[in-house]
Write a structure and sequence with these properties.
Layout (H helix, E strand, L loop, with lengths): L1 H23 L4 E5 L3 H7 L16 E3 L34 E2 L5 E8 L5 E8 L21 E7 L4 E7 L7 E10 L4 E10 L1
Parallel strand pairs: 3-9
Antiparallel strand pairs: 1-4, 2-9, 4-7, 5-6, 5-8, 8-9
Protein backbone atom coordinates (compact mmCIF):
# COMPACT_ATOMS: atom_id res chain seq x y z
CA UNK A 1 0.00 0.00 0.00
CA UNK A 2 2.84 2.40 0.88
CA UNK A 3 4.49 1.73 -2.47
CA UNK A 4 1.25 2.54 -4.34
CA UNK A 5 0.79 5.80 -2.40
CA UNK A 6 4.42 6.74 -3.01
CA UNK A 7 4.09 5.97 -6.72
CA UNK A 8 0.87 7.98 -6.90
CA UNK A 9 2.52 10.98 -5.20
CA UNK A 10 5.48 10.85 -7.57
CA UNK A 11 3.10 10.67 -10.53
CA UNK A 12 1.13 13.66 -9.21
CA UNK A 13 4.36 15.58 -8.68
CA UNK A 14 5.52 14.88 -12.24
CA UNK A 15 2.08 15.88 -13.58
CA UNK A 16 2.18 19.09 -11.53
CA UNK A 17 5.64 20.01 -12.78
CA UNK A 18 4.58 19.24 -16.34
CA UNK A 19 1.48 21.39 -15.97
CA UNK A 20 3.50 24.26 -14.51
CA UNK A 21 6.05 23.98 -17.30
CA UNK A 22 3.29 23.99 -19.89
CA UNK A 23 1.71 27.06 -18.32
CA UNK A 24 4.97 28.99 -18.28
CA UNK A 25 5.82 27.93 -21.82
CA UNK A 26 3.35 30.50 -23.05
CA UNK A 27 5.03 33.54 -21.51
CA UNK A 28 7.95 34.79 -23.51
CA UNK A 29 8.46 38.32 -24.87
CA UNK A 30 8.32 42.08 -24.33
CA UNK A 31 9.52 45.30 -25.92
CA UNK A 32 12.26 47.41 -24.44
CA UNK A 33 12.55 50.00 -27.21
CA UNK A 34 10.50 52.04 -26.77
CA UNK A 35 10.42 50.73 -23.22
CA UNK A 36 7.16 48.98 -22.38
CA UNK A 37 5.15 49.34 -19.21
CA UNK A 38 5.99 45.78 -18.20
CA UNK A 39 9.72 46.44 -18.55
CA UNK A 40 9.41 49.67 -16.55
CA UNK A 41 7.83 47.56 -13.79
CA UNK A 42 10.50 44.85 -14.04
CA UNK A 43 13.24 47.50 -13.83
CA UNK A 44 11.65 49.00 -10.71
CA UNK A 45 11.30 52.36 -12.49
CA UNK A 46 7.55 52.10 -11.81
CA UNK A 47 6.43 50.53 -8.52
CA UNK A 48 3.23 48.90 -7.24
CA UNK A 49 3.00 46.78 -10.38
CA UNK A 50 2.03 43.44 -8.87
CA UNK A 51 3.15 40.19 -10.49
CA UNK A 52 4.24 41.74 -13.79
CA UNK A 53 7.43 42.99 -12.11
CA UNK A 54 8.66 39.37 -12.11
CA UNK A 55 7.12 38.37 -15.43
CA UNK A 56 7.52 41.15 -18.04
CA UNK A 57 7.55 38.48 -20.75
CA UNK A 58 4.13 37.08 -19.78
CA UNK A 59 1.63 39.52 -21.33
CA UNK A 60 -0.05 36.96 -23.55
CA UNK A 61 -3.61 36.89 -24.82
CA UNK A 62 -5.68 35.67 -27.72
CA UNK A 63 -4.42 36.73 -31.13
CA UNK A 64 -6.36 38.38 -33.94
CA UNK A 65 -6.18 41.99 -32.70
CA UNK A 66 -8.12 44.21 -33.28
CA UNK A 67 -11.01 41.93 -34.36
CA UNK A 68 -10.22 39.57 -31.48
CA UNK A 69 -7.79 39.55 -28.58
CA UNK A 70 -8.06 41.30 -25.20
CA UNK A 71 -11.17 43.29 -24.34
CA UNK A 72 -11.12 47.08 -24.43
CA UNK A 73 -9.65 48.45 -21.21
CA UNK A 74 -7.60 45.27 -20.75
CA UNK A 75 -5.37 45.49 -23.83
CA UNK A 76 -2.07 46.49 -22.17
CA UNK A 77 -2.33 43.47 -19.84
CA UNK A 78 -3.29 41.16 -22.70
CA UNK A 79 -6.53 40.43 -20.85
CA UNK A 80 -4.64 38.93 -17.90
CA UNK A 81 -6.20 39.91 -14.57
CA UNK A 82 -2.97 39.43 -12.57
CA UNK A 83 -1.30 42.08 -14.77
CA UNK A 84 -4.15 44.64 -14.60
CA UNK A 85 -1.72 47.29 -13.29
CA UNK A 86 -0.54 47.66 -16.90
CA UNK A 87 -4.03 48.86 -17.88
CA UNK A 88 -4.09 51.47 -15.11
CA UNK A 89 -3.30 54.78 -16.85
CA UNK A 90 -1.92 56.17 -13.56
CA UNK A 91 -3.41 59.55 -14.39
CA UNK A 92 -1.53 59.57 -17.71
CA UNK A 93 1.78 59.67 -15.84
CA UNK A 94 3.63 56.55 -17.02
CA UNK A 95 7.23 57.44 -17.97
CA UNK A 96 7.46 58.10 -21.71
CA UNK A 97 10.17 57.71 -24.35
CA UNK A 98 10.84 60.93 -26.29
CA UNK A 99 10.26 60.51 -30.03
CA UNK A 100 9.46 62.74 -33.01
CA UNK A 101 6.63 62.55 -35.53
CA UNK A 102 7.93 61.11 -38.81
CA UNK A 103 11.06 59.82 -37.05
CA UNK A 104 12.73 56.58 -38.10
CA UNK A 105 12.89 54.38 -35.03
CA UNK A 106 14.32 50.97 -34.12
CA UNK A 107 11.79 48.87 -32.25
CA UNK A 108 13.22 46.02 -30.16
CA UNK A 109 11.78 42.86 -28.63
CA UNK A 110 13.42 40.65 -26.02
CA UNK A 111 12.41 36.99 -25.99
CA UNK A 112 12.76 34.46 -23.21
CA UNK A 113 11.24 31.80 -25.48
CA UNK A 114 11.19 32.11 -29.23
CA UNK A 115 7.91 31.02 -30.77
CA UNK A 116 7.57 30.77 -34.54
CA UNK A 117 6.06 34.08 -35.55
CA UNK A 118 3.46 35.33 -38.03
CA UNK A 119 4.14 39.04 -37.68
CA UNK A 120 4.70 42.07 -35.50
CA UNK A 121 2.26 44.98 -35.63
CA UNK A 122 2.48 48.42 -34.07
CA UNK A 123 -0.54 50.61 -33.38
CA UNK A 124 -0.62 54.14 -31.96
CA UNK A 125 -3.26 56.23 -30.27
CA UNK A 126 -5.18 58.92 -32.13
CA UNK A 127 -4.55 62.59 -31.52
CA UNK A 128 -6.91 63.70 -28.76
CA UNK A 129 -7.16 60.28 -27.04
CA UNK A 130 -7.72 60.38 -23.29
CA UNK A 131 -4.52 59.20 -21.63
CA UNK A 132 -6.24 59.08 -18.22
CA UNK A 133 -8.41 56.13 -19.31
CA UNK A 134 -7.45 52.50 -20.06
CA UNK A 135 -6.63 51.78 -23.71
CA UNK A 136 -9.50 50.90 -26.06
CA UNK A 137 -9.63 50.09 -29.76
CA UNK A 138 -11.47 53.38 -30.38
CA UNK A 139 -8.47 55.27 -28.95
CA UNK A 140 -6.12 53.71 -31.54
CA UNK A 141 -5.61 54.63 -35.17
CA UNK A 142 -7.50 51.82 -36.96
CA UNK A 143 -4.51 50.53 -38.93
CA UNK A 144 -1.06 49.64 -37.60
CA UNK A 145 1.58 52.20 -38.56
CA UNK A 146 4.10 49.36 -38.93
CA UNK A 147 3.65 45.70 -39.84
CA UNK A 148 6.60 43.30 -40.03
CA UNK A 149 5.76 39.91 -41.59
CA UNK A 150 8.03 37.34 -39.96
CA UNK A 151 7.36 33.72 -40.80
CA UNK A 152 10.15 32.22 -38.71
CA UNK A 153 11.47 31.85 -35.19
CA UNK A 154 13.04 35.06 -33.85
CA UNK A 155 16.45 35.25 -32.16
CA UNK A 156 16.69 36.17 -28.45
CA UNK A 157 16.67 39.88 -29.38
CA UNK A 158 15.00 41.21 -32.51
CA UNK A 159 15.07 44.76 -33.85
CA UNK A 160 13.34 46.25 -36.85
CA UNK A 161 13.06 49.81 -38.08
CA UNK A 162 9.94 51.76 -38.88
CA UNK A 163 8.71 55.33 -38.97
CA UNK A 164 6.44 57.02 -36.45
CA UNK A 165 3.41 58.63 -38.10
CA UNK A 166 3.62 62.31 -38.91
CA UNK A 167 1.22 64.76 -37.31
CA UNK A 168 1.42 63.29 -33.81
CA UNK A 169 1.90 65.65 -30.86
CA UNK A 170 1.94 65.22 -27.10
CA UNK A 171 1.80 61.95 -25.23
CA UNK A 172 0.72 58.77 -27.00
CA UNK A 173 0.63 55.03 -26.43
CA UNK A 174 2.21 52.50 -28.80
CA UNK A 175 0.70 49.03 -28.75
CA UNK A 176 3.07 46.35 -30.04
CA UNK A 177 1.56 42.96 -30.92
CA UNK A 178 3.71 39.88 -31.54
CA UNK A 179 1.52 37.26 -33.24
CA UNK A 180 2.67 33.70 -32.61
CA UNK A 181 2.23 31.33 -35.57
CA UNK A 182 1.92 28.00 -33.77
CA UNK A 183 -0.47 28.88 -30.90
CA UNK A 184 -3.79 30.73 -30.58
CA UNK A 185 -2.07 33.61 -28.80
CA UNK A 186 -0.15 36.84 -29.24
CA UNK A 187 1.96 38.94 -26.88
CA UNK A 188 1.07 42.54 -26.11
CA UNK A 189 3.26 45.45 -24.99
CA UNK A 190 2.20 49.06 -24.34
CA UNK A 191 4.84 51.77 -24.50
CA UNK A 192 4.20 55.39 -23.60
CA UNK A 193 5.86 57.91 -25.93
CA UNK A 194 6.12 61.70 -25.92
CA UNK A 195 6.19 63.54 -29.27
Amino acid sequence: MRHKIGTALVALGVAGVSLMATGSASSHGYTDSPISRQKLCANGTVTNCGNIQWEPQSVEGLKGFPAAGPADGKICAGGNGPFAQLDDPRGGNWPATNVSAGQSYTFRWQFTARHRTSDFKYYITKNGWDRTKPLTRAALDPQPFLTIPYNQQPPATLSHTGTFPSGKTGKHLVLAVWTVADTANAFYACSDVQF
